[in-house]
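#help-structures

NK: newbie question. if I give both the sequence and a SMILES, will the prediction place the ligand too? trying with flavin-adenine dinucleotide
OV: yes, paste both and it writes out the complex. here, I ran yours:
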Amino acid sequence: MANESVAVQANQSKVLIAGGGPVGMLCALLLGRRGLPVRVFDVNPCIQEDPRAATTHPATLEVLDKAGLIDDMARVGLIAPIFQFWDRPSGEMIAEFDHAVLKDDTAFPYVNQCEQFKTAGLILERLVTMPNVEVLFSHEVTDVSQTADDITVTVRGPNGESRHTGSYLIGADGGRSTVRKSCGIAFDGFTWPERFIVLTTTFDFQAQRGYCPRSYFADPDEWCNCFKVSANGPPGLWRTVFPTNPDLSDAELMSDVAVQARLQKFFPAPEPYEIVHRNLYVTHQRVAASFRAGRALLAGDAAHVNNPIGGMGLNGGIQDADNLCDKLAAVLCDGASERLLDLYDLQRRTVAVEFVQEQTIANKRRLEAHDPQTRAQNLAELRAIAADPARARQFLLRTSMILSQRRAAAITLDEVPAARRA
Ligand SMILES: Cc1cc2nc3c(=O)[nH]c(=O)nc-3n(C[C@H](O)[C@H](O)[C@H](O)COP(=O)(O)OP(=O)(O)OC[C@H]3O[C@@H](n4cnc5c(N)ncnc54)[C@H](O)[C@@H]3O)c2cc1C
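OV: that's the protein plus ligand as C-alpha cells.
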C-alpha cells in the first residue's frame, strides 16, 4: 500500500524535459536534486560539441555555484576578468573593463570562458548518478498534448514511437522548439539578414597581438569578436566571429581561400591560419509571446534567441532554469500555488525583452556603426565610461547580467495580470 502511494505520487510529480542542451540538463539537475522524478529527451545521440556559448557571466556563475558546478567549471574553463573594445580601422584600443569593480556586487567578479558542451557534460556526469533522473538520447519529442491534470509528449526513439506523461513539461529544445510550436506560442521578433561565421584557430592573439581573451572590434566594414576558450587545456583556442555577406553561398563563405582571406584581412599573419572549426549561424532576435502554456514551460533558446555579441543567450537560459526550477519545485514538493509559474513567465520574459534583446541589439549596432559621427560618439562614450569607476561599475552590472537578475527578482506576484493567475 505504501509503495503504491509512492508510485502514484511519483507519476503525479514527474517532470518531462524536451532538450538536453545546457538548459535542459540544468533543469534536470535542479529538479532531480529536489528528489523529483525527471525524464529528459534529446534528439541527438550525445552532447554536441559545436562552438557556440562560452562566456559565462558573474550573475550566471552565482546560479551555477548554487548548483554545485563552480569549481569544476573553473577547472575546465578559463577565468577572464577583463574585456576590451578596439577600433579596428585605427588599431587603437578604446576601452578596457575589469570586472574587479564588481567585487562588492558578486562573489564572481569575472567571466568564465567555459564552452557550453563542457557545462552540459559536467551536469550530465551528475545526472547519471541520480536514480530519479533519466536522460534519453536519440529521442525526439514530436508532439505535445495536455489535460487539466497532466501533459503528454509523443517521442520518436530507436525503438519507434512512444508516449510519456508527466505533471509538467519543460521545453528546453532550442530555437526551433517543437514544444513552443506544438503549444501554438508565437515567437515574435526578427532575423538578421547576415549570417555570422565562427572561425576557431590555434593562432594566439594574446601572445601575437596583445588582445585579451574577450576582445570586441568595431568596424563599419566588418566588425569582429575575438575570444579565447581553454579547449583541451593550454594553450587553448581562439574563436573569431564575423558578419557575412548575405549574397554569398555557404561554399563561397566557407572555402579555405575565403576563410584565410577573412582572417588575413583582419589580422595579417606570416603563415596561413590553422582553422579548427568553421561554422555559419543564422541569427535572430525573438522572444516567445509566453513562457507558459498550461503545463508546458519554455526555457533557454526555446523561449528567446539573440545575437551572440555580449554572450547573453545561454546565460539567460541558465537563469531561466534556476528561476523556473525553484518555482516548479515549490509547486510540486511544497504545494505552492501554480501562480508561481506565471510569475516565472513574467519575470523572465520581462528581462529577456528589456535587457537581453535591448543589450545585444545595441552591442551589434555599436560594433557595426557606419556613420562617422555616430562611430566617434560611440567610441568616445566607451572611453568615458571606462575612465570613470562609478560608470564602469554600472556598465558592468548590466553586461554581467546582475542588473537583469535584480530586475527579475523585484517583479512580484501582484504584477502578474489577473487573467493569467492560476
Ligand atoms: C556563435 C555563437 C556563440 C554564442 N556564444 C554565447 C556566449 O558566449 N554566451 C551565451 O550565453 N550564449 C552564447 N550563444 C547562445 C547559446 O549557444 C544558446 O543560447 C544556448 O545553446 C542555448 O541553450 P539551450 O539548452 O536553450 O538550447 P540548445 O543548446 O540549442 O539545446 C537544445 C537541445 O534540444 C535538443 N532538441 C531540439 N529539438 C528537440 C526535440 N524535438 N526533441 C528532443 N530534443 C530536441 C537539441 O538536440 C539540443 O541538445 C552563442 C550562440 C552562437 C550561435
